[in-house]
Amino acid sequence: MTKVASTQQNPLETSAEVLVLGLFSDLPFVDQISDLKPITELLDSLVEGKHFEGKIHELVPLHGLSGVNAKVVYLLGLGEKEKFNTEKAFSATSLATKSIGAKQRGQVVFALPDSLLSDYEKVTSIQGAYCGCRGQDIYKNEKSLFPVEALSFYQFDENLVLVASLTAQGIQTTRNLVNQAPNMLFPESFAKQIKKLGSESGFEVEIWDEERLRNEDCGALLGVAQGSRRSPYLVIMRHHGGPSGQQPLALVGKGVTFDSGGLSLKPSDAMLTMKCDMGGAATVVGIMEAIARQEVPTNVVGVVGLVENMPDGNALKLGDILTAKSGKTIEIHNTDAEGRLVLADALCVAREQNPTHIIDFATLTGACVVALGLEVSGLMTNNQELCQEVLSVADTVGEPAWQLPMFDSFGKQIQGKIADIKNVGEGRWGGAITAAKFLEEFVEETPWLHIDIAGPAFLDSPKPHLDGGGTGCMVRTLVEVIRNRS
Ligand code: BES
Ligand code: MN
Ligand code: ZN
User: Fold this and answer.
1) How far is the CA of 51 from the centre of ligand 2 (A)?
2) Which residues form the catalytic set?
3) How far is the CA of 336 from the centre of ligand 1 (A)?
4) Are residues 133 and 270 part of one domain?
5) Are 89 and 15 within one domain?
6) CA-to-CA distance for 294 and 290, rounded, in angstroms?
7) Which atom of ligand 1 is nearest to the CA of 425?
8) Which ligand number lies closest to the CA of residue 261?
9) Would you give per-residue pLDDT tens digits along the chain (486 residues)?
10) Helix H or strand E segment including 238
11) Does residue 334 line the site of ligand 1, with CB under 6 A?
């Protein structure tokens, strides 16, 4: 695990192996980090020769620089000061550590223009640096990316560094859970990992096994699970940061550890990455870990439904009728619309915790990816104020998110013929919204926000600043939302 700290030592004199100098393109470099005075001429000559201009995401490694103690100096462009934001802060520092982490490294010091950055820009730059050198090669004997041993940030506030690094640890937990292979991470092993994380980071864990799920009438979740050899679980996580008796915020996650589609089998190409279908549950776990480690003074409860969607002999059939925990009956029209079935019961369990609000996370629909692309989370709500709060924080911390409408006409599409509702709309148009309308049936009057992360939760191939696989999207937004509420 990377040690993360703040440092006051002059960056030119650092004993660290690597020094990263982050610089804006449109201000004199020495005005940004005053300690660079002794190497002014050198930096100027680099600019003159167009070797380094400070453009965003420009990264120039220099070895054995005179006047600098570190073995390697990376000049990292931050672009124009006015165009800088948290999203760029994350991608710039992660780009740097992704490159630095190509080899095993000791200590890395970041000297960024401290006085020119907002606190959130500092926080996300720390998180980016932490995540950039961590990848999806978890089963490789010879790694291609090495987490740096220690990360220090020149002149950053100590507490800010600590809090940012604990959120980064949560993001990393989410990424790591998503990256695990579906024969390694399945409902039972997922529940065990949550239990372990809970005791390490300080949140309480309650595990419901199949028998308990039966006793609790979780017929929708159990319906999905019946097509798999693996038993389903539901896990309740509790962070008691606030006064006892304070109503919690509830977080709910879709934890389909593999989505084959069931009898409505997916084509092979679409199935290949479906280990990522527990991304919503992994998001909840990452958030719980971060707020527990930070001891955020408010109550939060997390509920994740863990199942595998498989086409076993006992699998759900088209036309089957399930009775959800709430008592609502559901016609199955497509067994690949399984996430909403799992969430239907998980949302009811969350409601029993008497929450003020519910926020759910799910890799729920391909339709959301069609609507918003691979990078944007889709938000759907029955409570505009809650949605606005999350959208605004997402913008502040640099995570792309966009709201989709919840018009009544979409709800009409999921009315059933022989049961209360059916698990798909009429045709595929607006599929992200008809899915949300289905979920809305199970939250009653509780203020609720649904976040469809089918696009951004998983990267099929690496980006320049982040390895492929799980991204941990929306963890930093939600940790911030929760910190703001406390
Ligand atoms: N897990 C998928 C959604 C998904 C698609 C996640 C792409 C990540 C990337 C979900 O269970 C699903 O299969 N949804 C169907 C719903 C349809 C059958 C109504 C879809 O989107 O096609
Ligand atoms: Mn599916
Ligand atoms: Zn799914």
Assistant:
1) 49
2) 266, 340
3) 7
4) no
5) yes
6) 6
7) 19
8) 2
9) 899 999 999 999 999 999 999 999 999 999 999 999 999 999 999 999 999 999 999 999 999 898 999 999 999 999 999 999 999 999 999 999 999 999 999 999 999 999 999 999 999 999 999 999 999 999 999 999 999 999 999 999 999 999 999 999 999 999 999 999 999 999 999 999 999 999 999 999 999 999 999 999 999 999 999 999 999 999 999 999 999 999 999 999 999 999 999 999 999 999 999 999 999 999 999 999 999 999 999 999 999 999 999 999 999 999 999 999 999 999 999 999 999 999 999 999 999 999 999 999 999 999 999 999 999 999 999 999 999 999 999 999 999 999 999 999 999 999 999 999 999 999 999 999 999 999 999 999 999 999 999 999 999 999 999 999 999 999 999 999 999 998
10) strand 233-240
11) yes
- Tell me the one-letter amino acid at 453: I
DSSP letters for 203-255: -EEEEE-HHHHHHTT-HHHHHHHTTSSSPPEEEEEEEE-S-TTPPPEEEEEEE
10 Å CB burial of residue 85 (0-12, 13-18, 19+) is middle
Number of domains comprising the chain = 2
| CATH number, position 263 | 3.40.630.10
Ligand 2 centroid from CA 261, angstroms = 5
Q: What range defines the domain where residue 129 resides?
A: 3-156
- Collapse the DSSP code of 451 into the 3-class scheme (helix H, G, I; strand E, B; otherwise coil) and give the result: strand
Assess whether the C-beta atom of 367 lies below 6 angstroms from ligand 1. Answer: yes
Give the distance (Å) from ligand 3 centre to CA of residue 337: 7
- Tell me, yes or no, whether 152 and 193 share the same domain: no
Task: Establish whether residue 260 lines the binding site of ligand 1, counting it when its CB lies within 6 angstroms of any ligand atom.
Answer: no
Point out the ligand 1 atom lying closest to the alpha carbon of residue 434.
Answer: 19
Q: How many residues does the chain have?
A: 486
Q: Which ligand is nearest to the CA of 316?
A: 2
Q: For residue 339, is it within any domain?
A: yes
